[in-house]
Amino acid sequence: MFLYGTMGVNELGNLEIGGCDTVELTKQFGTPLYVYDIELIRNRARSFLRTFKNLQINGQVAYASKAFSTIAILEIMNEEGLSLDVVSGGELYTALKANFPTEKIHFHGNNKSYPELEMAIDCNIGCIVVDNFYELGLVDEICKRKNKQANILLRVTPGIEAHTHEYILTGQEDSKFGFDLQNGQAKEALQKSLELSTVNVLGVHCHIGSQIFETRGFIIAIEKIYDHLINWKTDLQYEPKILNVGGGFGIRYTDSDHPMEPENYVEAIIHEVSKQVETHNLLMPEIWIEPGRSLVGDAGTTLYTIGSQKEVPDVRHYVSVDGGMSDNIRPALYQAKYEAIIANKVLEATEETVSIAGKACESGDMLIWDIALPKAEAGDVLAVFCTGAYGYSMASNYNRLPRPAVVFVEQGHAKLVVKRETYEDLIKLDLSLQEVVKK
Ligand SMILES: Cc1ncc(COP(=O)(O)O)c(C=O)c1O
Ligand SMILES: N[C@@H](CCCC[NH3+])C(=O)O
């Protein structure tokens, strides 16, 4: 059994997180329930920041809020002194509602709409990470109309393939994101941007992918970017003030994942940038990073109630829970693997190998294949670990299942930070034909 962060086992044999008995949490808040270990999140944030400080490098650590965006988590990230990465008007709206300082927000996305860009420019966002020529045109148009100037980074595609799942790769040449470095698109974008009085080009951004376990990909990306920056200095007299190398730092979901500590990723990045600027006699830029998963991923645990079971003799033993792909799409989408325990039987020996099924009307709604557990009974609480990133944020109402509640636990206190959806919530945007006729 692998317990981490503030997890422990109490005298009842129940799993505790943040000093709270998880079985009690399910009684108080119901299931499925996302539980976040806030101390773990704060420690991660501090490790990233400390590395910059210790190496005396100016930097920003921007939380990639797509991993888990709610008002309360953004308040925590702000308390910890992080910046913020948003990718839509909705994420920006959430940040504004959390009173996140707008000068510390960076806006990403490969197809930002006119209203989204307008919203960002109106709130004097820290920077817009411009992804393509169309967007550059929109930013120029909006700024002209409002007589404003926007800080921008240019997102470049370094053309490397990080070792991760195909759907979460982003830095390869054949990608929908960013200006290609290799074919000259990125240089053309820089040239165009420098000619515009409406934008201030702070620097360059790249993001090579997600759930990455080694530093090689980051180092190669930085090398490739610097190959071009030398040329940009000569030809366009341009040097970036900021180099943003994105996020993607991996976490441990199961025994087969071997992530590095946050410090190790940051040190390797800083080391490579320092080496490049020294070699090519360029200015040391500020270094920005954008971790999402590595800040909140393993801090999240989902608690489910076990219900029905089905034995297919000599084939499989299915154990069903009261959630599934609607609160965690990752196994179905990426064949992602998870570990779990029975939270009310932590100290009991494992007795059987079972597969955990969700309750959605899809054969593919399986959370875990073949896991050894103590004897599972209806009413037991299953705790699935490492569901804090891209769980709630990718949740859906498929089969009209209400989205779970979210609770933060810290030092023995549990705080409800997202209410459980009700059936009433599920229909609140629906209009009956009678109403449509009336209008
Ligand atoms: C531009 C950008 N920055 C940051 C992230 C965060 O990635 P992760 O959650 O893997 O750290 C992503 C997602 O892959 C991204 O697309
Ligand atoms: N949603 C993905 C990662 C994509 C990250 C955003 N570019 C996951 O769950 O792993």
TrEMBL record:
Residues 41-296 form the Orn/DAP/Arg decarboxylase 2 N-terminal domain. One of its GO terms (biological process) is lysine biosynthetic process via diaminopimelate. Pyridoxal 5'-phosphate binds at residues 248, 290-293, 390. Residues 34-388 form the Orn/DAP/Arg decarboxylase 2 C-terminal domain. The modification N6-(pyridoxal phosphate)lysine is found at residue 66. Substrate binds at residues 293, 330, 334, 362, 390. CDD domains: PLPDE_III_DapDC. Keywords: Amino-acid biosynthesis, Decarboxylase, Lyase, Lysine biosynthesis, Pyridoxal phosphate. The active site is at 361 (proton donor). It catalyses: meso-2,6-diaminopimelate + H(+) = L-lysine + CO2. Its EC number is 4.1.1.20. Its cofactor is pyridoxal 5'-phosphate. Pathway: Amino-acid biosynthesis; L-lysine biosynthesis via DAP pathway; L-lysine from DL-2,6-diaminopimelate: step 1/1. GO terms for molecular function: diaminopimelate decarboxylase activity; pyridoxal phosphate binding. Homodimer. Specifically catalyzes the decarboxylation of meso-diaminopimelate (meso-DAP) to L-lysine. Belongs to the Orn/Lys/Arg decarboxylase class-II family. LysA subfamily. This is Diaminopimelate decarboxylase. It comes from Perspicuibacillus lycopersici. The lineage of its organism: Bacteria, Bacillati, Bacillota, Bacilli, Bacillales.
